[in-house]
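Hi there,

I know you've been waiting on this one. I reran it after we fixed the sequence typo, so this is the corrected version. Both the input and the resulting structure follow.
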Amino acid sequence: MRRARLFSASGVLAMLAIVGAAGIVWAQASDTIDINAPSDVGGSFEVDDVAVDTTGPTADAARFAGWRLAQRKAYMMLARKMGEGAGAPSDSVLDQMVTGIVIQDERIGPNRYIAKLGVLFSRAKIAGLLGASGAGMRSSPMVLMPVMVTGGAGVTFEQDNPWSQAWARFRADDSTVDYVRPEGNGIDSLLLDVGQAERRDRYWWRNVLDHYAAADVLVASVTLARQWPGGPVIGTFEARHGPDNRLLGRFSLSVQSADGITALLDTGVKRIDAIYQAALLGGSLGIDPSLAYIAPPMPTPTATPTPVETATAASDTPVAGATAIMIQFDTPSAAAVASAEATVRGIPGVSGASTISLAIGGVSVMRLDYVGDPDALRSALQARGYAVGRNGTTLRMRRASLPPPNVPSDATTTG
């Protein structure tokens, strides 16, 4: 697939190979149209599979007319998708909105042009016209691992491969999933190899995700099976999520020969993106709480034998002889943070309680100073309705489930 800029189409086509009685020809690489290397264009709306069939006094004129027609048709398709029924603006206005033309397939004759094209529109320029601000729901940033298995061997970023190239071509600006797509350079091949997709170690995953400033991981895999040399190719695609490699969807696509693998993979990318978007909309693409950052336990300060002055109960100044305690607690909302802090601060002997790592929707971390045995603090929290686990000076606090109702025993006697 090639991307061509519309506004440099004034060259004369050369070296055309005739392939039929109708005079239709395939365009050769020697044409003077400005063809750019495939790359992801951020900030663009894309409309694919726009079919055109135009004529003109020359091959170049027919092609230019086809691209102009594709602009108008693509605008109408995009307007219908966004619920707008107004007609297309003038060609001069569209020229300012179109950022590129993607050539999916084209045939060129001396006076005729038949093609299937994709059109890229500038989001900033077309959003106001179509009433689309582009500020809808979007997921947390998620690292994408494209895993390709062919011939029984899997590969991700260890070497360049058609599956990672397909994801590099994919324009994710319209997707509600915030993909973090590594380029495969430097340390990428070490951190995100095939074996990493099968690892469950949360500590290792937290380090990997922190490197990419992401909150979770998506594993998109394809297994290619060739029926016989030069024959049909079947691709089995899977969309997985999280360090547990949870399967969200699976499907298969096929092409008649290896020549169609690029189109097969491009289609698979779009189908997998649709699965991820549906999962996000359905609430099953949330962040794994076990991937939330957990601060290491702070060293216990040594008690200093200094005179202790009378301190007010509300003071947050550390008291001599106090022990630094870390509490991990669930924070589904901002209100849960305030509630947990208020509960902890109300326990006698607690001072300086404050949240040092906030993760709304995950596990936050609170630090405090406590005068007394940490087991006493644990008991005080349990008395306030929490289930509390302890590991040294680190406590894990959860809301305890309600006990079963206390049904009085039947004291009735029968005689």
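Quick highlight: The first helix runs from residue 59 to 81.

Best,
R. S.
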